[in-house]
Amino acid sequence: MATMSSAEPTRRDFLYIATGVVAATGALAATWPLISQMNPDASTIAAGAPIEVDLSPIAEGQVIKVFWRSKPIFIGHRNKKEIDAARAVDWHTLPDPQPDQKRVKEGHDQWLVLIGICTHLGCIPIAHQGEYDGFFCPCHGSQYDTSGRIRRGPAPLNLELPPYEFVTDNKIKIG
């Protein structure tokens, strides 16, 4: 008896290939949602993403509030009087000693960027209030100067500085 050997594909070869393609497609369709659900949610990505803020509409003496990572960020356009008041203080005598020059970017002394959360219990201070015309936390009486440094009250530390950089003279990127 002679065996037949044919170089031409048979119907059985076609069925094997078709079954393999359907199985591979099914496996891909089943694993796609599993892999996709591991990606972070769009709101999570947005919460940690850097933000850019245009400084040109902020008038001298004005403080605005923006949000980055669900935290209030105070951006203040300080006038010469506020800068001079912050620099006239003997910073060595402050509860959390830090010179004004370390709290602003060099060449941009008029812009103060702070995380607007009181370092005592996490309240949000009010700008241009208190004895030092800086920031005042009405909850427990902490008072900060025009550089965001603690001057009086129960807060142990200065208002924090977020990571930021100047993209242009009129635009900053926070984060």
If you had to describe this structure to a student in words, what would you say it looks like?
This protein is α+β, with helices and mostly antiparallel strands and 175 residues long. The chain folds into two domains: 10-39; 45-174, Rieske Iron-sulfur Protein. The chain contains three helices and ten strands. It has helices spanning 11-36, 42-48, 80-88, and strands at 51-54, 63-68, 71-77, 111-115, 126-129, 134-136, 143-144, 150-152, 164-168, 171-174. Strands 5-6-7-8 form a four-stranded antiparallel sheet, with no helix packed on it. A hairpin with a 6-residue loop joins strand 6 (134-136) and strand 7. The radius of gyration is 30 Å and the shape is elongated.
Q: What's this model, at a glance?
A:
This protein is an alpha+beta fold. The chain has helices at residues 11-36, 42-48, 80-88; strands at 51-54, 63-68, 71-77, 111-115, 126-129, 134-136, 143-144, 150-152, 164-168, 171-174.
